[in-house]
Design a protein that fits this description.
single chain; 303 residues; alpha/beta; Rossmann fold; 2 domains; five-stranded parallel sheet; two-stranded antiparallel sheet
């Protein structure tokens, strides 16, 4: 019998629903699937209180991690690991970062084939690059990557997702689509499990070829890559300022966070619209370059 370990941290339950759909066609009498949720010792609330939501920003950006519970009853002979994560401020969620940097991760992932699964807004490329490094650091073999993104696209999700995180309401604005991934896209994840079911029975996880090719597992929007890189640089500058302003949840941090949020709102209503227009013009002159970047970041699974 083949054994598959599903490791994940799902704050609001959406990622867990994705993984359950994914594995619904994977497990059978010949394949066993074990779920293990990574649990921070100090649980993150949902919906988020305003300042606590932004107070986690510096630690997420700098990949600091947090204190987590040790996972119990893990086997040492898993044939495949599925790692599910979400994106916090262009980085993996703090709980995932914490586990990937733990001593337990080195034992769990050593020489194991891994399929990474991300569920988030449409800007996940840099977070995935960080996951790739983490997997390399623990000696894992990264076989495939699956990316599911929120409905609404780049601009709309910039409004609907933060609103959902702060209120817990997916459909906060009647004139905008609900936050999160479409239910039909979550349901369609069963195609990945079905493919892995066959691949495991043919021992393909022991090879070096991606197992989820030609399933639309990973589609990169090359037009957003430059925006991600600009935002990531800005995040690093502001996260350092917030860190220097005081300890977590201190008044000093609240003051700087307030300034930062005002700065973000200014960007949303001024710089970002201009950036979208400028990017459309520039992208029309570099279509081949964008295609090459998309192909690179879509590895190993591709479209």
């Amino acid at each position: 019998m083949k054994k598959v370990l599903v490791l994940y941290y799902s704050q609001n339950g959406q990622l867990k629903a994705v993984l359950e759909s994914f594995t619904s066609t994977l497990e059978d009498e010949k394949i066993q699937v074990d779920y293990r949720a990574i649990t921070p010792k100090r649980k993150y609330p949902f919906p988020w209180p305003f300042y606590e939501f932004f107070d986690e920003f510096p630690e997420a950006v700098h990949l600091d991690g947090c204190e987590i519970e040790e996972l119990k009853d893990l086997a040492d002979d898993y044939d495949l690991i599925i790692l599910g994560y979400t994106v916090w401020y262009m980085a993996p969620s703090i709980s995932i970062t914490a586990f990937m940097k733990s001593e337990q991760a080195k034992k769990v992932f050593k020489d194991k084939p891994v399929v990474s699964v991300v569920a988030c807004r449409d800007m996940w490329v840099l977070a995935q690059e960080k996951i790739k490094v983490m997997l390399q650091d623990v000696g894992a073999r990264h076989m495939d990557h699956v990316a599911l993104t929120d409905q609404g696209g780049e601009v709309v999700s910039l409004v609907t997702l933060p609103t959902y995180m702060l209120t817990g309401k997916r459909k906060y604005f009647s004139f905008l689509p609900p936050a999160g991934i479409k239910q039909e896209e979550i349901a369609a994840c069963d195609r990945f499990g079905a493919r892995l079911n066959q691949a495991l029975k043919q021992d393909k996880e022991k090879g070096n070829e991606a197992m989820l090719k030609d399933l639309g597992a990973c589609v990169v929007n090359g037009k957003l890559i430059a925006t991600e890189k600009i935002a990531n640089r800005s995040f690093h500058i502001w996260s350092k300022l917030i860190k220097k302003s005081g300890k977590k949840y201190s008044m000093g941090r609240k003051v700087v966070i307030t300034i930062y949020v005002a700065f973000l709102l200014l960007l949303i209503f001024t710089v970002i619209p201009l950036n979208i227009i400028a990017r459309k013009i520039l992208n029309s002159f570099q279509k081949e370059k964008l295609k090459a970047m998309e192909a690179m970041y879509e590895l190993p699974s591709g479209r």
